[in-house]
Design brief:
heterodimer, A: mainly alpha, MetI-like fold, 2 domains, 17 helices, 2 strands, B: 311 residues, mainly alpha, 15 helices
């Protein structure tokens, strides 16, 4: 009964299923002929279906409000948006906010350059590491040892970027563990944090530290699906362990690897926003500005709303095109992609 | 799905960790390389944690002994840093705020996600198709920074705790995972219950939820970790220092190394060393994750795989 009361309070326009249920035993009353009994039955079903919708509506509303309503906010990309005027009062300026695309805006080009360099470094360096780690973990015979290793290696994934950045500072900063060690042994200290030239390397090593272990999960799952008899048959035929790796394991993982790679390329324009914004101060914008941080710094901090929204809009559109393109590519390679054909 | 939680499970179950008969003894060099790769990876994770915890318990002498930097081998042990940051002041307030947001946010997220997933999982539900498309669209592209900010501003949510929950209330991917799980439950149960006159709500409460404890646990934990870790939205939407969650306190006092003054913590006449205060704050931010971690670990592989297979 309790569920039905909540139903009434949540969904007002429904024809009150609770009362209908109570009215049904009264079918002996003169007013209820065959038609009348059928009607509440149908209405109860509809009410129940509406109740189902009502259960989902709060979530759907949140989705609309905070995922789709912002899409409308993109109109300020075509405005000289002033926060005190709002969207309705601000002047419309056509495509002038998009001039950064053609006039060689140095800040934009710098942000784009840094973004693409970081993407390339991360694809080349970050990407294969989980695969290697997964192969090593998978070859461990002891189940207990493997579990322990996994537990330790997955852990950094669950720490926030603030914590990861803080940890790196305490390890590699000028007063960090590494330099404390060097000082104690009368060695010159090394400056790693806050050096523009090393910034991209630092970002990449943080990404590796945080997610390389976690990245092994998907490879380990794929490895566990390889039929062990294949290995056995190959070994009986005299294949060495290296040959088994090259001819059985790696081909079995190829599809997954290509899929993950394509997906990563699909998000080429997004590289670690939180991670970078936290560390921009000491290294300066030239080395550290990427598209997302530029949108934030230029728009929300700098008050250059229209243009930043335009950059964000272009970035989202290219991002969607890249994901769709990446999926097409995955389909060409005979993979499933994120969605089916 | 079992395979995901125990990779290579079939082999190990048969042999209990012993090498299969057909496998030759590995070359010592291969073994050594593997051992080194694993040892280095594991140490790279453990050493920072160890050092942070050790430094948070250190007194001034210990820190001086390590040239004012991070401590590896604690000689003096004191809880002063913890009693200072947890006895009142910025960190204590941030802990209370972050814990409240995590608890309330996780409950709301889980309830709305389960409701939405249930709606979309029932065959023939009204309006399910377009909403499912919206959901997939939301997985494919994220709203921009500036439009999201404008929406929160227009709704007068700037500088409120609601701005840390509502914009991230629903994670579309989590809904899809949960819907996939609901769809894999034996549908005959629902049918027979419906024939017996059970309403959709009764089916949800009496059948679906009790059978879905695993997926509720995984998704709840993912939401909880996300709320606890949330930094970007807090940076974007929270302006008053009094409303800072842990992430902003960490950024200011640990990442940016702003000095923690005596009036910002509850210290007696002697303020513990800055480094210990900072590390104690960092440890406090990590501990909830460590507490959740064993639960997370039991379930996350499963959650990840449901998403990967059905997503």
């Amino acid at each position: 009964m309790s569920t039905r009361t909540t139903a009434n309070s949540v969904e007002e326009p429904t024809p009150k299923p609770g009362r209908l249920r109570r009215s049904r035993p009264g079918s002996s009353s003169p007013s209820s002929d065959g038609h009348a009994t059928a009607s509440p039955r149908r209405r109860r079903l509809t009410g129940d279906k509406l109740l189902l919708v009502a259960l989902g509506v709060p979530g759907a509303v949140a989705l609309l409000m905070f995922h789709y309503l912002p899409l409308l906010g993109n109109v300020i990309a075509f405005q000289d948006y002033q926060p005190y005027l709002g969207i309705s009062e601000s002047d419309w300026v056509g495509f002038s906010n998009f001039s950064f695309l053609v006039d060689g805006n140095p800040e934009f080009l710098n942000a784009l350059k840094n973004t693409l360099i970081l993407t390339v470094i991360q694809v080349v360096l970050v990407f294969p590491i989980p695969l290697v780690l997964a192969l090593v973990l998978n070859s461990l015979a002891g189940e207990g040892l493997k579990r322990t290793m996994q537990s330790i290696l997955y852990l950094p994934h669950f720490l926030s970027w603030v914590i990861v950045v803080a940890i790196f500072q305490q390890m590699l900063g000028n007063a960090g563990m590494l330099n404390t060690f060097l000082v104690q042994h009368d060695l010159p200290i090394v400056h790693i944090i806050g050096v523009p030239e090393l910034f991209k390397g630092l970002i990449t090593s943080q990404a590796i530290w945080k997610d390389a272990g976690w990245g092994t999960i998907i490879f380990l799952a794929a490895l566990s699906r390889i039929d062990q008899e294949q290995y056995e048959a190959a070994a009986v035929d005299g294949a060495s362990s290296w040959q088994r790796l090259v001819h059985i394991t790696l081909p079995a993982l190829k599809g997954l690897f290509i899929l993950l790679l394509i997906l990563r390329l699909g998000s080429s324009l997004s590289v670690g926003f939180e991670q970078i914004i936290l560390q921009q101060g000491p290294v300066g914008l030239e080395a550290s500005e990427v598209l997302d941080t530029w949108v934030y710094n230029n728009g929300i901090l700098g008050g250059n709303w229209g243009m930043s929204a335009a950059v964000g809009l272009v970035k989202s559109v290219i991002g969607v095109l890249l994901v769709i393109g990446a999926n097409k590519l995955a389909h060409v390679f005979g993979e499933r992609g994120v969605y089916e054909k | 799905m079992e395979d995901a939680t125990r990779p290579a499970g079939t082999r190990s179950r048969r042999n209990r960790g012993k090498r299969p008969v057909w496998m030759e003894k590995p070359h010592p060099l291969t073994q050594a390389t593997k051992a080194i790769v694993l040892a280095i990876s594991v140490l790279l994770v453990i050493i920072p944690f160890w050092s942070i915890v050790a430094t948070s318990f250190a007194d001034q002498q210990t820190i001086n002994a390590s040239a004012g930097g991070m401590v590896m081998w604690p000689t003096g042990f004191t809880l002063d840093a913890y009693s200072a940051v947890l006895g009142g002041g910025v960190v204590t307030r941030a802990v209370i705020i972050s814990v409240s947001i995590t608890v309330i946010g996780t409950i709301l997220s889980l309830a709305t996600t389960a409701g939405l997933a249930y709606w979309l999982s029932r065959p023939g539900a009204i309006g399910a198709k377009p909403v499912l498309m919206l959901l997939l669209g939301a997985v494919l592209f994220a709203p921009g920074i500036i439009p999201s900010y404008l929406v929160v501003k227009q709704l007068n949510l700037l500088d409120t705790f609601a701005s840390l929950i509502l914009p991230v209330l629903i994670n579309a991917f989590n809904v899809i995972v949960m819907r996939a799980f609901f769809q894999e439950l034996p549908q005959e149960l629902f049918e027979s219950a419906a024939i017996d006159g059970a309403s959709n709500a009764t089916i949800l409460v009496k059948i679906v939820l009790p059978l879905s404890k695993a997926v509720l646990a995984v998704i709840g934990l993912f939401y909880a970790v996300a709320y606890w870790n949330a930094f970007f939205n807090a940076m974007l939407y929270i302006q008053t220092t009094d409303k800072w969650p842990m992430a902003l306190v960490l950024r200011t006092y640990v990442v940016n190394q702003t000095t923690i003054g005596g009036d910002q913590v509850s210290a007696g006449e002697a303020l513990p060393p800055q480094l210990s205060l900072q590390m104690a704050t960092l440890v406090i931010a990590i501990v909830p994750i460590l507490i959740l971690y064993p639960f997370l670990q039991r379930h996350f592989a499963k959650g990840v795989m449901i998403g990967a297979v059905k997503g």
